[in-house]
Amino acid sequence: MRQPRCPDRRTILEHTLRILDQRSFIAITVFLLSGMIGFFVLYNAMSNQKEDGEALRYAGRQEVLFQSIAAEALRLRGSTSASEQQTSLQTIQNLRAELAEGSTYLTSDIVPVQIATYYANLWHTKTGEAFLFLKTIERALSDPTVPIPQPSPLLDQLDTGAQMYLAHYQGEIHHLEWSIIGVTLVQLLLVAVIYATVLKPMRKTVHQQMRRMQLFSKAVEQSGSMVVVTDANSIISYANQRTIAYSGYQLDELVGQTPRLFQSDKTSPHIYKSLWQTLEKGEVWEGELQNRRKDGSLYWVQATISPIKTEQGVIEGYLSIEHDITIVKQALEENEEVREQLLTAIEAIDDAFALFDKNERLILWNSRCQMIFHGVQDLIRPGITFEELLREGARRGQYSGVDDQEQFVRQRLESFRTAEGEFEIQLANGTWLLGADRKTVDGGRVMLRIDITRIKEVEEALRVAKGQADAANQAKSAFLSSMSHELRTPLNAILGFAQMMQIMPGESLTKQQDKCVNHILKGGQHLLELINEVLDLAKIEAGKVEVSIEPLHLGDLLAECLSLVAGSAQARNISIHTPKTTCIIRADHTRARQVILNLLSNAVKYNSLNGSISITTHLLDDGDRVRLTVSDTGPGIPLEKQGDMFKPFNRLGAETSDIEGTGIGLSITRQLIRLMGGEISFVSVPGTGSAFSLDFLTHTSPGISLPAISDSAPIERLYADLAGTVVCVEDNPANITLLEMIFSSVPRISVSIATSAEDGLEIIGRTLPDLVLMDVNLPGISGFEAVEELRKDPTTSHIPVVAMTANAANNIIPRGLSAGFTSVLIKPIVIPDLMNILANHLQGGRHANDSSASAAE
Asked: Could you tell me which residues carry 4-aspartylphosphate (predicted)?
């Protein structure tokens, strides 16, 4: 790179500077002479001003001094202290000395004659006001009878003198101002002459030359590159600000040094050798160097070094232009590190990973990709397209279940290009893959294939296990249903005959017999409750419990439940305190009664003898729920056992007591209350008692009116009023005997017994009874088939048929009603329930009327 040279321009510039130097010398000499003359003129005027200023100061000071003397004389006369008097006398003497000095100056020939004469009259030794004032002060100090004179008249005369001197001083200042203006005008005139005769002719040429030099200098100084100029021996003669800023060296530290000052041991010696070989040939060298700053830190530069040659081609220096590329080098290094980290991370992925560019060409992949797609691993290379891999894989049979290769390729390509969602695909070797394709910012695609074969195997195992579990659950349900039926059948006889022993008319039990019957009823009822609770728990766990939410009177529910536990509470002498509440809740009537009754029964069973039960209700803060709390005075629950309160079949140690229970009542209660949108909670203090709370949803509809629960009619009245004909279809001998015994207590009811559905249909068709009681599980034709036949026959379709079954499954009642039964009676038979059914269908019936008529005749 040759350095351009301009010898003519340099000659013109040097000649211009020489002429400028000569004329400038003449102009400066003239300017200095005129300046000296003006200086002497102004100096003389300023000297006069200085003297006048001093005199003016003395004139003004005279007034202050006379006032101070008068004030000090008054202080002296009023003082009784010798030391204070001595101090005041000394002060007066000092003030008089200063007055004497000022009067001497003001009456000297330095002061204008008129002003000096004025002050001489004031200080005249016989008639001067100032002289007389001081004399009076002296007499007053020596003679207390002489009053201290007032300085006011004298001060007026002194003020007049000061004003005269001030007017004189202002006139001198005005004169000085005009002198300065005159000298300034002369100087400006000289400057104008010098500018017109010396500077202006040269201004244009010098300005042009200097502008070119400034532009060149600015270009170098403000360059974003580092510029260094050396002589032929590589001694630095110039470095711009960029070089100084980057290297950390000042200019005076660089000039006189060689560029080796910047060298670091990080740059290979071969690079420096190549550099000098190129420069010695007179050629330009370009390359990268890692230099060192003054503080030892390193930086990278892209350097261009050119030899500077004379007209004859002799190298007289070197020009180095360097650009900082540290950030670029660091970015490249970081990119390389990131790339290595990315490759390592991708390789560590257990899934197949591949990166395609915007043209769908393969850029990057991991070894897992080759392992999974082993069928086309020989094709996995940079540049191959996704479509090529896909087509060849389909052709080689890599994928399972591909009937139409073209359609398969088209669908997979569409999914790959859309890059949304996930899909599953199976390879021919049985491997299952979860695929996901995503777009990159630059339009590329990321392909991820996850081996989910193990997950598929687990899913299949879960499916099989679920099938087995469902089968086991169905078997459990069938077993529970069967066990329920098998247990209820003998219980029907036990409880039925025990009830009959208590209510049979005309026969009374001994006290011992009555006690035994009560034990039979109590044990049978407990066994029935156990069966019901086990069935309830099984239904809840199977998710087969349905609730029908409706508005209910909480007070009526409480009354209904309290009537059921009143006898047990009375037997243990337990008092029950109940609230009056008009709250309406939203719940299932049967289940709400069940959960409330469970809490009340527990409060009675686990309470102390002669204890008490308190029932409270209150709205919760949210206003959407009401809390019913049942508190007892029992022994409470140990703290260590409270965490197991709602675990099924856990009686918390009560299993060793004589208190009957199953340990699943509270577990069922919690699940039922939650099904109704509520919650159960408790607080128990050992030795004090327990409080269990049920939270029900409230019903907020205004103006609702619900029917109150009516009392059941006394059973004695039902016995007396019932009349009619009944056909009982039952195959169990014990149940037949129980039914015959029950109906024998009601002589106006005519009962026919059939032991099979076939016999029952024949009797019903022949006698057309008022009511049919039919067992569901009959030999031969079932009760469901029999009632269907009755409903088909117009002559029997109107007859009410009540199903009797020991099956307490959740769907038995809906099934019975849909089959055509009028109602369903669950065994064991509760005699009052049976009497209610008889009363609903026989009282006032056709045969009852006939019997009444016959009796009347």
From this structure: 775
